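#struct-queue
[09:14] JT: dropping the first one here, sequence first, then the structure tokens:
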Amino acid sequence: MEKKSFSPPVPDGNPTPAAEAAAGRPDVYPTWRDTLSMVGMYFLLSVVVGLIFAPFGADKGGLPLFLMYVTTFALLIGFSLYLKKQKTGDLKGILHFSIRGFSPGIILWGVILMLAVGVVIEPLTDLFPDEWMRQLNRTISGTGGWAMVTAVVAAPVCEEVFFRGILQDGLTRKYGGWQGILLASFIFGAIHLVPQQVVGGTLIGVVIGYVYYRTRSLLSAIVLHAINNSLALFSMLLMEDESVTVRQAVGSDTVYYVIYAVAVLLVALSLVRVVTLVRQGKFRRGETDAEWKRL
């Protein structure tokens, strides 16, 4: 008599997200609901944590602002990791702090490109009212050393871990290289709320997002972000409450047009090169966590 093997019954209905991920379905996370949940949680935490730290003078900057900022992102990152754990069943293959992937050459290219992007978008950002930027400059310039710690250390680490290490990582796996970079960059820019920072943050996010995509290392993204914030902070402290454009700083229309033309050319050539490299990249839509770790 033939012996039959016994298999446990499979419950009716659709498989759980964790079961899908275990079966090799990397597209299970993040869904649009997951993405909106993380963005919504950021704004909720910003309000709740802000109210908690308000009595300690967080609105005036200094140590309270630093602690408020770090607490907000620590809770956001914890929530996002919990969400991924619930959907995929594990946390493998994320948050890559690879020293091997750290590339000073790509970081230098990123810094130059970010400066060029700032020049190119200046005519657009000059159309927005600058009162919010002035208020931001006054807040930051009046916080002393803690402004530097928050902008140059806390912000690059916290924001890159969330926006690149968690959000872009998941979106890239689900939708593909360019889609993941652009979506994460748009969200990164949008959460800044100030119009000038929304535009600048989105485009700077694309540069940083590509560097992370190319190097597979959050260290490269964090260093590039820190350099960008250092330059922005230095210009704020130097100009104090004044808003000086590149054109005004140069003082010559002819020189400004030359600078602008060079910046446009650099951005255009870099864009063509980046699009080509992303299309040729190994990290394609549907790549699993295990495949990412082997790169």
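[09:21] JT: and here's the second one, same format:
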Amino acid sequence: MPPTPADPRESHDTTRFDDLRDLKTGPPVNDEPGQQTSPGDRSGSNGRLWNGGDILGAIGLSVTASTVVLMAGLFSDSLQDASSEDSEIGTIAAAIVAMALSLAIARVTRLPFATTVNLLGLATVTNVAVHLVSDAGRSDLLGLPPSFIEAAILSGVPFGVAWLYVSRKRGRPLRDLGFIAPTSANAFLYATGAWLLALIGVGIWGALVTDIDTISPPDNATPVLEIAGGSLLVAWLLVGLWGPFVEEIFFRGFLLGGLRSRLGPWPAILLSSGVFAMFHIHPGLYVPTFLLGVAFGWVYLKTRSIWPSIYGHTLHNTLVIIAVWQDIG
């Protein structure tokens, strides 16, 4: 059968991102010299973009794997307390269920099973070791508070999951997650402007709901500073640098990048921002993180690079941490 001619409506200028309508199929990717593929290409078992099943699997695996890591740490704490037998049984049960779900998701979505198990095991064992060090009375590990290391591990789980689906399963290069130079010289100006607009929306929302405890934005920065032992630098490394890096890779590079070729740019931005908001758990954070997610999502599609959205996210978190540090200092 002769090959089907390409639809000329799906071609677009690969050097500019002047209109979000041009992003529906996403940028083409060169995997080999002289060869081009696009996010619309679904041929072959490897070298193709992640599909809807991968996206759902990654969201589920991020939740279940984080639960395994967290429950393992709590279980190691309960071993030090002879009076916590009931909580110990509950923790074990939760960890077993989460582990079973993680392995089931890996099987169903056809992840490389051994790599998935090894990565999950490494994160779990590392967190248990961190808890054991903390229970032994040490206030630091490699110069960092144990609680900081645990938070960094948990934050990094979605990043590891995205890597599994993109690199290990699909064989795609990291540039498919946005690790390319921005196509526009104004990329970081776009990020700053989008962040400021989102910040205005966050401020208006906060003023409207300030007297409604259930949906009023909570103070998340103070607990982070406590986790960091009161150190501004340590808090910034966790929330101002590491957090934006791993979150933008998962929610913009992976989630938004996978949705845009199927839903179009704005539905993909809105849906990925909704998932981004839900991952922040507290109802008071849903609207602020959704607005920020929309801003960073627009920046990602506008610039074709993950770096401007990481910059915008880092800018926001850094200023929040500094403001809270000054208030309590």
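[09:30] RK: nice, looked through the second one.
[09:31] RK: The radius of gyration is 21 Å.
[09:31] JT: good to know. The longest strand covers residues 29-32.
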